[in-house]
Amino acid sequence: MLNVVNSVEALLAIKEGQIKCFTRDPDTGEWVPQPLTAQMSAPATVLSTFAAEIPGDVAVALDSHVCLRMMILNHPDNTGRIWIGGTGVTAATGIPLEPGQVQELSLGDTGGVSAIAEVSGEKLVVAYLV
Q1: Same domain? 64 vs 122
Q2: Is there a single domain that holds both residue 104 and residue 55?
């Protein structure tokens, strides 16, 4: 690796699932770690929300809204779990959300998420960034 490092001005290394950036100090020749700032491909400009009533007998897709990110909340007043996932999600295949629990997802459309409830008629609240 030293041969490769010596041939470039900046090095990206993958370690423990994280990308780390190093630059060479021109005075000492040492490789110095640099902080990385997470950047989105486009800045979010609007936060919107909607609520969805979820049945207990069949999975339903959430309303479709184009987004950069979303957070899905199992409403705190609910009494049972709601499972979220792709089309046809079930209690065996979905992500379980307890009442009051939130799951953040990076999807391009809220309609890509389906849900099914332990108790029919309970609510999810979806906040999404556009």
Answers
A1: yes
A2: yes
- Phi, psi dihedral angles at 95 (to 5 degrees): -85, 115
Structural domain boundaries, residue 108: 47-129
Instruction: State both tokens at 62.
Output: 């959430």
Pick from 49, 56, 26: nearest CA to 118? 56
Provide the CB-side half-sphere exposure for 104 (13 A, CA).
Answer: 3
User: CB–CB of 104/71 below 8 Å?
Assistant: yes
Overall pTM surpassing 0.70 (yes/no)? no
Based on the structure, what is the number of domains in the chain? 2
Query: Which tens digits make up the pLDDT trace of 79-98?
Result: 999 999 999 999 999 999 99
Q: For residue 34, what are the CA distances in angstroms to 6, 7, 29, 44, 62?
A: 17, 18, 15, 26, 41
pLDDT digits (tens, 9 = 90+) for 28-55: 888 777 665 555 455 667 899 999 999 9
CB 70 within 8 A of CB 128: yes
